[in-house]
Amino acid sequence: MTTTTPTTPTAPTTDAATTDAATADAPPADARALGLAHYAARGVLEQILARHGVTFQQQVVLRAAATAQTPPTRDGLVAEVRGALKADPAGIRTVVDGLLDKGLLVADGAHLPATDAGRELLAAVGAAVAPVGARIWGGDTRRGPGRRRPRPRARHRAGRRRVRRTDGRVTAGPRGRVPPPAPGDGRTA
Fold first, then answer.
1. Which is nearest to 115 in space by CA: 127, 98, 103?
2. Is the pTM of this model over 0.70?
3. Which of 10, 19, 41, 163 is paired with 120 by a 20 to 30 Å CA distance?
4. Could you give the CA distance from residue 100 to residue 97 in angstroms, rounded to a whole number?
5. Which residue from 120, 103, 99 is spatially nearest to 56, judged by alpha carbons?
6. Which CATH number fits domain 30-137: 3.30.40.10, 1.10.10.10, 1.10.8.50, 3.40.50.1000?
7. What is the mean pLDDT for each group of 10 consecutive residues in the chain (189 residues)?
């Protein structure tokens, strides 16, 4: 009978299927690193939006209109994005008017649904931002949708273990090596 003991009791171990090499070797994130990643991602997003002739505020309002369960009203749309943009309602109404002028939103009575052009714009921006955002935030850009990440090699796996036999002898040390025989244990070198 064999039992296992962890080599390092420093952190709780996770399931090996969910741990990958990128997260096993990554240092813990601090506020500064997260802030830098946020500003890098925001800068890339604003460059891509500028290529499409849209501002960040317009993209936020357009996404809110396109993802709503039912087409929002002007006041409902302003109320929904006010917290995200931290802007006054008059400024958000100006953004909504700009989207109407560009044909990305359409006035359908009191409601403002996104047009097909607006949805295509959001899809194009999302496709352009995804690979860069994955690199900034540490994702794997080589994977396709629905594909799992490859399992990490044993040397990267968290919670390496060594096996001890019931008589107390170690049969496999860290990194899979068997330690040299101890005097009098009956093994030969």
1. 103
2. no
3. 41
4. 5
5. 99
6. 1.10.10.10
7. 48 48 61 86 93 96 95 94 91 96 95 96 94 78 48 49 56 58 63
